[in-house]
Amino acid sequence: MGTSYLVKDKVFAVCTYQLSADPEKFSNTRTTPTVFYQNDKQPILTVADRNLNCQFTCKSPWNNFTEFDYIFNVTYSVESRTNTLLGANVLLNEKIKNNIEAITKFKIHQVEL
């Protein structure tokens, strides 16, 4: 079976959430490359070469979203004689750790027209 080689300047990486339009190139992790493609100017990447030439700038870094919590709470009072709703409070709370919290509150009460 043949072996595949990746030439340093011809291999690119993309991130789903990257902000830049251009892909990033891999760079040598080894201080001195030992294998070259066609000439001494194009090193071949090995398993040890895992660095990129620069960091991705992401619109949604994976480490910011670590936990999600959702709270739904309803309290209400009913008139026992007529089974009519007198009032209610509803709370919806969405929490994303290290990111945002969205709180929605509803107050329901009886009105006379």
Defining traits:
113 residues, 3-stranded antiparallel sheet
Which helices and strands appear, and what pairs or packs with what?
Blueprint: E1 6-7, E2 12-13, E3 24-27, E4 44-45, E5 51-52, E6 68-79, E7 84-96, E8 101-109
Antiparallel strand pairs: 1-4, 2-3, 3-5, 6-7, 7-8
How is this structure best summarized?
The protein has 113 residues and is an all-beta fold. The protein folds into two domains: 1-60, no CATH class; 65-109, no CATH class. The chain contains no helices and eight strands.
**Gyration radius from CA atoms, angstroms:** 29 Å
Helical proportion, percent range: under 10%
Domain count, please report it. 2
> Which oligomerization state do the chains in this entry correspond to?
single chain
Strand content: 35-45%
Q: Please, how many helices? A: 0
Nearest-integer average pLDDT: 76
Q: Distance N terminus to C terminus?
A: 85 Å
Q: What is the element string, with H for helices and E for strands?
A: EEEEEEEE
Which structural class do the helices and strands define?
Answer: mainly beta
Shape: rod-shaped
**Main sheet specs:** 3 strands, antiparallel
In what order do the strands lie side by side in the largest sheet? 2-3-5
Report low-confidence residues grouped into runs of 5 or more: none
